[in-house]
């Protein structure tokens, strides 16, 4: 089978299967057969990074960049859904709750003249800020594990501490990677410093947020609302308390779910795998 046929089959396979393992004849110290190439259609979680850096020399191909635009779009949509109470309002319309006009009925919080704080100013964080600019945001703040002055200047955005981000922001958008440093960083300490009108949005990783603390902050009115596309665990059990809250929008991890994005992810994953099998450099490979 030629390379083109391989590529067509791989693209079709990778659209339906999120991860693809390819095993070569290799053994580890216990005599077990192990994979030598791993290709994924998503940004690799920590476990995979550790795996490929092991003594087994497993190469890891992944698909960054191609999902940036789709994730940024969904992040903005989720922010608006939470801040403008869209799901709650739609439910009222469907169930007979749409009564006579009242001045403050279904009022939410707008972006005009607001301060938006971004936790993690990487590709997606920048793309989110770019999309929020036309809404009339007055100021962007960011917190990142490493200084990003060149990127921040292009927005522009001011670098602040996590505590300052919590205190000053009207909207907090979490776009950071899950690392030992960011595990549970969005917790009681952060929520307790946020404005009671603030909106919290997470489209990064569920492990970045202490969900029990978030629930309490929402129930107690410490923050106004939250929008989550990622949770811990996934899927989130249907009886989870967050689903019972009107001021929390939970989506089933669909940030990259556009047809064009998923096809692009599949194509890149297929090209990575074929390059790995040929012993060539992958288009996108986590460096050993």
UniProtKB/TrEMBL annotation:
GO CC terms: cytosol
Residue ranges of every copy of the D-isomer specific 2-hydroxyacid dehydrogenase NAD-binding domain listed in the record: 76-255
Any Pfam family matching the protein: 2-Hacid_dh_C
One GO molecular-function entry: hydroxypyruvate reductase (NADH) activity
Keyword annotations: Oxidoreductase
InterPro entries reported for this sequence: D-isomer_2-hydroxyacid_DH, D-isomer_2_OHA_DH_cat_dom, D-isomer_DH_CS, D-isomer_DH_CS1, D-isomer_DH_NAD-bd, NAD(P)-bd_dom_sf
Keyword Oxidoreductase listed: yes
Domain D-isomer specific 2-hydroxyacid dehydrogenase catalytic: 55-286
PANTHER family (alphabetical): 2-HYDROXYACID DEHYDROGENASE-RELATED, GLYOXYLATE REDUCTASE_HYDROXYPYRUVATE REDUCTASE B
Family: Belongs to the D-isomer specific 2-hydroxyacid dehydrogenase family.
Official protein name in the record: Glyoxylate reductase/hydroxypyruvate reductase
Species of provenance: Alligator sinensis (Chinese alligator)
